[in-house]
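Design request, tokens follow.
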């Protein structure tokens, strides 16, 4: 499953943007305040809508008035996400649309729909169509041989107009496209890594197979990989050794009082260091490797400014690790302020944000002829960015 395009209207700084042919690995640069975090928050927002409801997701972002693009004439927030997925043996391009409005000061789902073409030709068919808490979904969508009129429509009421239909119905296996999309958004991982959370001993129980968004279960995930995927763990250690001078081994250890901690061995000394006492960058690099070598990659991963705390020469390898992760079946979005990181990027991967008169547009490097020419001559994205070739990207 892959996201192909995103359209956003009236979501904060994005009054009207469209990104088509989204690459597997997308790198976004832009001046402060142009909307990098907001772009990633679109997925965070949909995620929150699914975990709770639309009202909570809006309210936690400062209520409808704050979320709606300032001075917008239209009082509706709109998202359209197109994704490709296999339904039976067919590859389908599914379009999900969501409109959020406000009634009596309360946000609600004005319209929500899922559609795709049933055959090679013809108009897209609505498999799910809801407005204001009521609508229908098709429950035998896989019967592609049946004519449209023989599909079974299940009318449904969601009980509330701030619940997404893909949440209400997506739990049922028979609604294939809704179900797959719900799972994708639910397992979306927006990294909000904090070195302080990743340090220190942790209890041995709790989620342990994937690194959490804050990184606070690092020791547990390390232990899981150490025990269940020793080859991966060894790869992480040998990569750490080559990138962080002095690190010769890392080991998850159980303390006498039943907690789990990480022990960092420096080849120069007999006694290892506890994770509390190793450097910030050491913890961060280890956490990235644990995240990126995850045997079961997230379908969508989003990381802001991965360069922080890390030595600039390591950016090429780090970028390659994000790319490999994306190619293992997920999609990765990264924002960066690092020319070194960008130097490792391919032109198709790079986008930049330009804010004008309060709203932001998204520019694509591969659509800029001059950039294409320079890259064909062997130049690098980071250098070109620094030399001012990303039109409008620099603050005026
Ligand atoms: N409702 C709204 N309408 C228009 N603009 C908004 C709205 N809400 C927030 N903004 C603006 O959107 C911008 C949000 O920027 P965001 O945090 O996404 O930037 P960023 O690119 O991540 O910046 P940084 O590099 O500093 O992290 C801010 O400039 C903010 O003023
Ligand atoms: Mg930001």
């Amino acid at each position: 499953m892959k996201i192909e395009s995103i359209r956003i209207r009236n979501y904060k700084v994005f009054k009207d943007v469209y990104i088509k042919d989204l690459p597997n690995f997308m790198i976004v640069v832009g001046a402060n305040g142009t909307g990098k975090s907001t772009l990633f928050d679109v997925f965070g927002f949909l995620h929150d809508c699914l975990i709770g409801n639309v009202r909570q997701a809006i309210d936690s972002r400062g209520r409808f008035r704050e979320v709606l693009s300032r001075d917008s004439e239209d009082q509706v927030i709109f998202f359209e996400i197109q994704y490709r997925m296999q339904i039976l043996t067919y590859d389908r391009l599914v379009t999900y649309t969501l409109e959020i409005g406000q009634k009596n000061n309360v946000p609600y789902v004005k319209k929500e729909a899922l559609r795709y073409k049933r055959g090679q030709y013809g108009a897209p068919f609505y498999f799910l169509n809801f407005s204001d808490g009521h609508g229908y979904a098709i429950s035998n969508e896989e019967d592609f041989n049946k004519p449209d009129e023989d599909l079974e429509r299940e009318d449904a009421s969601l009980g509330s107009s701030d619940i997404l239909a893909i949440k209400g119905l997506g739990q049922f296996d028979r609604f294939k496209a809704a179900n797959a999309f719900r799972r994708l958004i639910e397992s979306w991982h927006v990294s909000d890594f904090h070195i302080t959370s990743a340090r220190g001993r942790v209890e041995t129980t709790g989620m342990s197979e994937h690194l959490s968004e804050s990184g606070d279960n690092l020791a547990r995930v390390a232990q899981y990989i150490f025990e269940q995927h020793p080859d991966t763990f060894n790869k992480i250690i040998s990569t750490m050794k080559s990138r962080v001078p002095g690190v010769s081994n890392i080991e998850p250890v159980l303390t006498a009082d039943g907690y789990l901690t990480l022990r960092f061995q420096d080849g120069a000394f007999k006694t290892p260091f506890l994770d509390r006492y190793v450097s910030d960058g050491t913890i961060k690099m280890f956490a990235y490797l644990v995240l990126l070598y995850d045997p079961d990659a997230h379908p969508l991963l989003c990381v802001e400014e991965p360069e922080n705390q890390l030595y600039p020469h390591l950016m090429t390898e780090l970028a390659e690790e994000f790319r490999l992760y994306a190619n293992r079946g997920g999609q990765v979005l990264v924002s960066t302020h690092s020319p070194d990181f960008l130097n490792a990027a391919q032109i198709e991967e790079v986008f930049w944000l330009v804010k004008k008169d309060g709203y932001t547009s998204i520019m694509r490097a591969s659509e800029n002829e001059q950039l294409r020419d320079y890259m064909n001559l062997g130049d690098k994205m980071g250098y070109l960015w620094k030399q001012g070739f990303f039109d409008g990207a620099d603050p005026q």
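Comment from the thread starter after seeing the answer: thanks! Residues 12-13, 30, 32-38, 66, 68-70, 358 surround adenosine-5'-triphosphate (ligand 1) (CB under 6 Å).
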